[in-house]
Write a structure and sequence with these properties.
- The structure is a single chain.
- The chain is an alpha/beta fold and 202 residues long.
- It has a 6-stranded parallel sheet with strand order 3-2-1-4-5-6, with helices on both faces.
C-alpha cells in the first residue's frame, strides 16, 4: 500500500499549541466545560454568536502572531513534497488563518478544509472531502492530529489515525490512534514502515 496523502490538523499539530479554549470559553461567558466551542456557538442567539465569533477571531489572530512550527514540521513537509505525497490541512480554524500561518513560516499545503466548508471534526466530512480532492482511497491516506476529534474523523473515514503527543492531555487519546508520535518527523518512519510491510506481503 502506498501512502499518497497526509492530512494534518493545524493548531497543535503543524504549529505548537497556543489557543487556550477554556480561557476563550470563559471570556465568552461560558463555563470551561461547556463543550466544543463551535458547536456551542451554533446554538447561540445571533447577537451572542457575533460577540463569541469576535472573541474567537481575536484569539486566533494572536495565535497566528505567536505561532511557531512544531518540532520537525518543516522537515516533514519537505520530505512529503519530495515524495510527491499530497499535503492537506483539516482544521476547525479558517482558510485565511491557515494561509497566514503558512505564509509566516514559508510552508505550503495542497488543499485546506476549514470550519466553513461543511461539518467540522469529529465528523469525517473533511477527511473524505480531501481524499476525493486528492483522488486517493481512504487506506492511502493518513490523518495527523493532537486531539480526539482528529482521530475520530480519521477512523470514521477509514483513514489511518496518528496522534501527535504535544501535552499530558494527549495521552488520554492514545487508544483511538493507530500510531502515536512525539515529533512530526516520525511520520516519515511510519510511512516507510507501512509501505515496506505492504511490499513484503506482496
Amino acid at each position: 500500500m502506498k501512502i499518497k496523502a497526509v492530512i494534518f490538523d493545524l493548531d497543535g499539530t503543524i504549529t505548537e499549541p497556543y489557543l487556550d479554549f477554556d480561557k476563550i470559553r470563559v471570556e465568552i461567558g461560558l463555563p470551561p466545560d461547556a463543550g466544543p466551542l463551535l458547536e456551542v456557538m451554533e446554538k447561540m442567539t445571533p447577537a451572542k454568536r457575533k460577540r463569541a465569533e469576535d472573541i474567537l477571531y481575536k484569539h486566533e489572530q494572536l495565535a497566528i502572531e505567536h505561532s511557531a512550527l512544531n518540532k520537525g514540521a518543516a522537515e516533514t513537509l519537505r520530505w512529503l513534497r519530495s515524495q510527491k505525497i499530497h499535503i492537506g490541512v483539516l482544521t476547525r480554524n479558517t482558510h485565511s488563518n491557515t494561509s497566514a500561518v503558512a505564509k509566516k513560516h514559508n510552508i505550503e499545503f495542497d488543499a485546506v478544509v476549514d470550519r466553513h466548508d461543511g461539518p467540522v471534526k469529529p465528523d469525517p466530512f473533511g477527511v473524505k472531502m480531501l481524499c476525493r480532492h486528492f483522488n486517493v482511497q481512504p487506506q492511502e491516506a493518513i490523518v495527523v492530529g493532537d486531539y480526539l476529534f482528529d482521530l475520530q474523523s480519521a477512523k470514521s473515514a477509514g483513514v489511518i489515525a496518528v496522534l501527535m503527543k504535544n501535552s499530558e492531555k494527549s495521552e488520554q487519546f492514545s487508544s483511538f490512534a493507530d500510531y502515536t508520535v512525539d515529533s512530526l518527523t516520525q511520520i516519515i518512519d511510519i510511512i516507510k514502515r507501512i509501505q515496506n510491510t505492504e511490499h513484503r506481503i506482496q
